[in-house]
Amino acid sequence: MAQVTRLSQPAPEDRLKTGAATYSSGIADAQNYMNWVIEQFRPYLKGRIVEVGFGHGLYSRVLGELGDYCGVDHDRDSVEQASRAMPDRSFAVCDILAAEQLRTLFPNGVDAVFTVNVLEHIEDDAKAVANLVDVLKPGGHLLISVPALMLLYNDLDRLAGHFRRYSTTRLRDILAGQPVELVRLSYFNPIGGLGWLANRLKRHESLNDDAVNGQIALFDKYMVPLSRALDPLSRSFFGQSVTCIARRV
Q1: Contacts for 168-174 with beta carbons within 8 Å, 24 or more apart?
Q2: pLDDT by residue for the chain (249 residues), tens digit each?
Q3: How far from 143 is each of 2, 37, 171, CA to CA, in Å?
């Protein structure tokens, strides 16, 4: 039991990381993977779109073509860098644990909230989800992708400051008391999940060493087509991520 507790909590120094320190730089070049992620949510990405935790900015470039986009992040440096890099996009500093900040930024509500690999960084993830649901217009959609399965938790999660990885059951329980109906809740990317499992056998001291970024490049170039083909067979039980689409009622 002590081992599980250790693995489910990032080290104190990792909890303090923000912005680019929480992800591998190689993911910004993983265009095939990013396109696949976007495809899961594309039918719901329209109108007023808010991206929570925009990270490397690759999704921002796509989402800005699909609707009235605004990216929010609690890290001021990330917001300033994104604003300089993409002056045609809107970005704002916002702590999604502070409901009043979201309401002030979006007083008329939004049509879609898109968040990829963010909730696992937040200790009180249920409160964050409730606040994101609250800012949705009726009929709007909460679009979530998070790392899947504590079985896969490894050094890369710890270094990124992840409090947890998710099961579909955990996300279902978080959303159970919210005014939403589930459109989709499933696992995603089985080959990526196997790769993450293999990384439990390795020691990692950095998210940005050549080995980690090399894995990302190889997966994006060669493994994405295979994982896409297998994904329908494994959605009910296994994947690197959990995909959740919930509609505000």
Answers
A1: 168/242, 171/144, 171/146, 171/242, 171/244, 174/125, 174/126, 174/129
A2: 322 333 445 555 555 556 555 556 677 788 999 999 999 999 999 999 999 999 888 899 999 999 999 999 999 999 999 999 999 999 999 999 999 999 999 999 999 999 999 999 999 999 999 999 999 999 999 999 999 999 999 999 999 999 999 999 999 999 999 999 999 999 999 999 999 999 999 888 888 788 788 899 999 999 999 999 999 999 999 999 999 999 999
A3: 34, 11, 12
Burial class of 193 by CB neighbour count within 10 A (0 to 12, 13 to 18, 19+): buried
Other beta carbons less than 10 A from residue 169's beta carbon: 10
By DSSP bridging, strand 110-116 and strand 136-147 are parallel
Predicted structure pTM score: 0.90
Token pair for 139: 């009929």
- Name the residue type at position 123: E
Query: What is the amino acid identity at position 199?
Result: N
Angle at 151 between CA 198 and CA 203, to 5 degrees: 40
Class of domain 22-248: alpha beta
Token pair in block for residue 156: 């890369």
For 147, the enclosing helix (H) or strand (E) is strand 136-147
